[in-house]
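Please check what follows.
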Amino acid sequence: MDLEKILLDGLWSALFATAMSIRNSTPYKYIIPTFLSSVAAVFTRDSLENYGLSTNWSTLSAAFVIVMLTGLYIRSQKVPPVVMVCAVLPLWASVSMFGLLNDLRKVSILSGDALNQAAIDLSANTAIVFVITVSIALGFAAGLGLLRIIFRRETLEDSLINKKEDIPFTV
């Protein structure tokens, strides 16, 4: 896959993510971070897959990039969930999810060999959706953990304990 195709896919994905964020009533100040993090996430995932990394690890890395880029743009460890969800939508296993729903429908009406094939397809699609979802969750957790370290603020109790002077506490 060439760079032009990766960037074009990233821009279309970002347009979709931005439209979803507007549809979900995202505050205006979070629309640009949604767009930027979605472009960066699709670019990261496709580039890493192009270099030979598996889909699961590249999706985990892309979810990490979403959280880090948005957190650094907003300058906070508290990234709004609507930004993360809308930016990650282009990365999610939507084809497998629709296949899973279709196979679930087929399992209820088929019989014989067709039922066996539909059950196998259902199991495979369920596994793909589950693994991609776990990859995204782990990427989000790693990104939020790192943002917490970057934007750690000293609490009032910590600053009072570490102070050299004796400050009387009042209740």
